[in-house]
């Protein structure tokens, strides 16, 4: 009988080895330890054995029955684990794939063209050692005008139609008057007051003017201020930086002209115009038929402005500029109306770099 048990065991193991399916293993289990299985029948024959035989055969037959049960259960749980792993592998979402269903059904976002250009300009200036500063949109009269050499009765205030928070004529004289900043030059003042020369920084930001809108004018638009203060800085340094930035942005030589410009906070002051890239200089609504677009006013910082910023004009000098960012974006992408930039029209926005 011992021989029969060993033979049954070997038989079972040989049959189990190739099985990979749950149903096959359950059948095999039943074939050996089911009600009428090989081992179960052997156990039934115990009753016909003499006590001696029963004593040795009984435990060994039960041992084989447990062994078969354990082996089958082990194989069944292996199959279960394999199936779970297979399912997990099949259901895995590969986020590196661009053509899976999720990407197809989700519209990608993108950067506004102004953001693209602003980031490019920031990178260029950062590589030339400039810091990038920010400043408040709601500003007081001192930082927006007075410290920039534009006192209350100065006619230059009329150049920038201002949104006031209080009527400047009825607010008591000792009260600070607030406004929506008309240019990013307020950050010149804040930048000077918060650092010691030599320094160089740029300050991009939105500005506000109570103006009639047309193809090249908005009431809310963006400027990018720049300032460099140190010893013996000259107009040649100013022109070098302006030319470098335009060359980097347009990736080609663009035609520019420098003409005298008046801004109370610079002396001498210049207007840097760019040949209109919408009409190639022939004349259009963006350049007001003159073929040139006013883009980059600049100049050598006025000594009064340096003084207001806590800097000794006998020791230091410098240049400043205020780039019209929206107009630069228009020239770069050939946009023929500044109002597209703020329209929020997705047909317009989605033409630019998407994620
Ligand atoms: C200024 O605002 C001066 N603060 C710039 C400056 C800084 C000069 C430092 C010297 C030194 P201006 O008002 O010209 O200057 O505006 C600067 C640029 O902003 C213009 O050349 C133009 O490109 C742009 N700009 C002006 N008004 C508008 C407007 N309504 N809509 C769109 N862009 C405008």
Give the helix/strand layout:
Elements lengths: L1 H15 L5 H12 L4 H7 L6 H41 L9 H5 L7 H15 L3 E2 L5 E3 H4 L33 E3 L5 H8 L5 E10 L11 E11 L4 H16 L5 E5 L5 E10 L16 E10 L1 H6 L8 E8 H9 L12 H4 L6
Parallel strand pairs: 1-4
Antiparallel strand pairs: 2-3, 4-5, 5-9, 6-7, 7-8, 8-9
Helix pairs in contact: 1-4, 2-4, 3-4, 6-11
Bound molecules: adenosine-5'-[phenylalaninyl-phosphate].
Adenosine-5'-[phenylalaninyl-phosphate] (FA5) binds next to strand 5, strand 7, strand 8, strand 9 and helix 11.
Structural commentary:
With 355 residues, the protein is an alpha+beta fold. The chain has 2 domains: 2-90; 113-349, Bira Bifunctional Protein, Domain 2 (BirA Bifunctional Protein, domain 2), CATH 3.30.930. It has helices spanning 2-16, 22-33, 38-44, 51-91, 101-105, 113-127, 141-144, 186-193, 235-250, 303-308, 325-333, 346-349; strands at 131-132, 138-140, 178-180, 199-208, 220-230, 256-260, 266-275, 292-301, 317-324. The strands form 2 sheets. The chain has a 7-stranded mixed β-sheet with strand order 1-4-5-9-8-7-6, sandwiched between helices. Helix 2 packs antiparallel against helix 4, helix 3 (38-44) packs antiparallel against helix 4 (51-91) and helix 6 (113-127) crosses helix 11 (325-333). The radius of gyration is 41 Å and the shape is rod-shaped. The mean pLDDT is 89. The structure holds adenosine-5'-[phenylalaninyl-phosphate] (FA5).
């Amino acid at each position: 009988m011992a021989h029969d048990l060993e033979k049954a065991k070997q038989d079972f193991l040989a049959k189990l080895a190739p099985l990979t399916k749950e149903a096959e293993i359950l059948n095999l289990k039943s074939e050996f330890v089911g009600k009428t299985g090989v081992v179960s029948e052997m156990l039934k024959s115990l009753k016909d054995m003499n006590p001696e035989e029963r004593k040795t055969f009984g435990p060994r037959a039960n041992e084989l029955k447990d062994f078969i049960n354990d082996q089958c259960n082990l194989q069944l749980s292996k199959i279960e684990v394999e199936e779970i792993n297979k399912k997990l592998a099949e259901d895995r979402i590969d986020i590196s794939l661009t053509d899976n269903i999720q990407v197809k059904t989700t519209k990608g976002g993108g950067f506004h063209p102004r953001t693209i250009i602003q980031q490019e300009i920031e990178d260029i200036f950062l590589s030339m050692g400039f810091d990038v500063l920010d400043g408040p949109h709601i500003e007081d009269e001192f930082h927006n005008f007075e410290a920039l050499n534009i006192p209350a009765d100065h006619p230059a205030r009329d150049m920038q139609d201002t949104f006031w928070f209080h009527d400047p004529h009825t607010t008591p004289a000792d009260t600070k008057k607030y406004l929506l900043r008309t240019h990013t030059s307020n950050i010149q003042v804040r930048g000077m007051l918060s650092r010691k020369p030599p320094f160089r920084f740029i300050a991009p930001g939105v500005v506000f003017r109570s103006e009639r809108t047309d193809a090249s004018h908005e009431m809310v638009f963006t400027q990018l201020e720049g300032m460099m203060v140190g010893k013996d800085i000259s107009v040649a340094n100013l022109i070098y930086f302006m030319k470098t930035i335009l060359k980097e942005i347009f990736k080609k030589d663009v035609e520019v002209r420098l003409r005298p410009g008046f801004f109370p906070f610079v002396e001498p002051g210049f207007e840097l115009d760019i040949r209109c890239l919408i009409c190639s200089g022939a004349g259009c609504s963006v350049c007001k038929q003159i073929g040139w677009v006013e883009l980059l006013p600049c100049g050598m910082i006025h000594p009064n402005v340096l003084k207001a910023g806590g800097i000794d004009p006998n020791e230091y000098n410098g240049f400043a500029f205020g780039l019209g960012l929206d107009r630069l974006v228009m020239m770069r992408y050939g946009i023929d109306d500044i109002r597209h930039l703020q329209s929020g029209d997705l047909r317009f926005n989605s033409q630019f770099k998407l994620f």
